[in-house]
UniProtKB/TrEMBL annotation:
InterPro entries: Bact_solute-bd_prot1, SBP. Keywords: Cell membrane, Lipoprotein, Membrane, Palmitate, Signal. Residues 1-23 form the signal peptide. It comes from the Bacteria. The lineage of its organism: Bacteria, Bacillati, Bacillota, Bacilli, Bacillales. It holds the Pfam family SBP_bac_1. This is Extracellular solute-binding protein. Gene3D superfamilies: Periplasmic binding protein-like II (3.40.190.10).
Length: 484
């Protein structure tokens, strides 16, 4: 199998730590050396004596060993650029947004923050992002695959570098699915409709003494995952973006209502727990590993490896295995499609976004921030992040660094992820910053709280749809929304 395909190649091992990779590299990649990047960005020569500078970065645990190797990463960067210091502040996924917002609101954000491309518009609209389109070198741009790089753009601006393009879908317990008579290989290859999916998850429900001991489907909907369920589902209902090509807000379409109805149907028929609104990411994964659900979501590419690690702990009678867990073969699955619409994969493009404070940074500092962003998003560091998470490499330098990494991912899952990547929703840098920011406001103030109420059976799908339509009309104007 050729795993070097530019858009869909995947790093498939987790046997080397980042520290080992950084220490073992005897030669520097040409695009990651001062001669290729520093000189190209700043125009400096070997005889220049550049001023000392510090670049700050706020970074969550992007992969298993990422944060434990911050010291090594800082040291490596200083070796490449002796006049520069990379200062990394760790954050958990749970407090990342709060920390960043606090710093942004104070007017002193970090130079770099690891965030999703979907919130770039929010900070760009606040005027707190640094446009690097005129600072990056051609060598840097050419190193990245075109599609994920587009996600880091908004309007005419480029606001950082992507770290990965990750498919976020769902995943199944192979043993449970086969016992329920579900042809998971066919589903991987051909996909399924909502009706087919609903029938399958009903077969996965197990009841004992009148109590449900296993659900067909569980999706995390609480905490940091509060918007994921709806965001992922609507892409498969003819709504790949909150905006149409002519920039009308799309969630006022009847297709949106169809998905809201489906969300309630799967709870009301017992396929999903009634307390779904209280299930966060940790509980979702615990339920999957302990056999309380057949299919789980959202499914991340790293889940296969996480399940494999827990399986080995069970075999070894290791007390650190998840309590009461069972051995699970994790199967990558596509989301169902609604109403005859084509399947569209939800992809998360996260990366190192470039920020600025209230005071305009100097040209030299801008160039140094770009060096740091590129250092983190390419080569050995990028390859290691993807290597640990079973993610596709999206840089040529990352693919090169990954060539020596052993493949341990299940071949069926690898092929399924390749198909899902080909169905990815396209980037929409054409959406104006102000529209994107308004959509985030509607999502935060209306869609997320109303979704929680819908999940808790406090409102009907129709009532939520009406609330979204009202908020959209007030926000975008009567002519700025889809009318049906």
């Amino acid at each position: 199998m050729n795993m070097k395909t530019k858009v869909a190649s995947t790093v498939l091992a987790i046997t080397l730590s980042m520290g080992m990779i950084l220490a073992a590299c005897g030669t520097k990649d040409p695009v990651n050396t001062p001669s290729a990047t520093q000189s190209a960005v700043t125009g400096s020569t070997a005889t220049d004596s550049p001023a000392k500078d510090t670049i700050t970065a706020l970074l969550p645990p992007v992969s298993a060993n990422f944060q434990s190797n911050f010291d090594a990463m800082e040291k490596k960067f200083n070796e490449l650029y002796p006049h520069l210091t990379l200062k990394i502040e760790p954050a958990s996924w749970e407090d990342m947004a709060q920390k960043l917002d606090t710093q942004v609101n104070a007017g002193s954000p970090p130079d770099l923050a690891f965030i999703g491309a979907d919130v770039v518009a929010k900070y760009a609209q606040m005027g707190m992002l640094m446009d690097i389109k005129d600072i990056v070198t051609p060598e840097m741009v050419e190193d990245f695959d075109e599609v994920p790089l587009e996600y880091m753009k908004n309007g005419d601006g480029l606001y950082g570098f992507p770290a990965y393009m990750s498919v976020q879908s769902i995943g199944g317990n192979k043993q449970f699915m086969e016992a329920a008579g579900i042809d998971w290989k066919k589903v991987q290859q051909e996909g399924w409709t909502y009706d087919q999916f609903r029938e399958a998850i009903q077969k996965g429900v197990v009841q004992e003494n009148g109590k449900t001991t296993r659900y067909g489907f569980v999706f995390a909907t609480a905490g940091v995952t509060s918007k994921d369920y709806l965001t992922i589902l609507v892409k498969n209902a003819g709504l790949p973006s909150p905006f149409t090509e002519d920039h009308k807000y799309a969630y006022t379409s009847s297709n949106f209502l169809d998905v809201l109805k489906a969300i309630r149907e799967m709870i009301d028929d017992g396929s999903m727990p009634k307390e779904l609104s209280s299930i966060d990411a940790g509980k979702r994964w615990n339920m999957f590993l302990t056999g309380q659900t057949m299919i789980t979501g959202k499914g991340m590419t790293s889940f296969e490896n996480s399940a494999n690690i827990n399986n080995k702990k069970i075999d070894a009678n290791d007390d650190s295995a998840v309590q009461d867990s069972i051995k699970v073969d994790y199967v990558v699955l596509p989301l169902p499609s609604f109403g005859g619409h084509k399947a569209v994969s939800h992809t998360a493009v996260d990366g190192y976004v470039t920020f600025r404070g209230k005071k305009e940074p100097t040209d030299e500092h801008k160039a140094n921030v770009v060096k740091a962003a590129y250092f983190l998003a390419s080569g050995e560091i990028a390859a290691t992040v993807n290597h640990e998470s079973f993610l596709a490499d999206i840089t040529d330098s990352g693919r090169k660094a990954a060539e020596s990494m052993e493949s341990i991912q299940n071949a069926d899952n690898f092929a399924a992820l390749e198909r899902l990547l080909k169905q990815a929703a396209p980037a929409r840098p054409d959406i104006p910053i102000e529209l994107g920011a308004k959509a985030i406001k509607v999502e935060t103030e209306v869609i997320i709280p109303k979704l929680q109420a819908l999940l808790a059976n406090e409102i009907t799908p129709e009532e939520m749809f009406e609330s979204v339509n009202k908020a959209a009309a007030e926000t975008f104007g009567a002519d700025g929304i889809v009318k049906e």
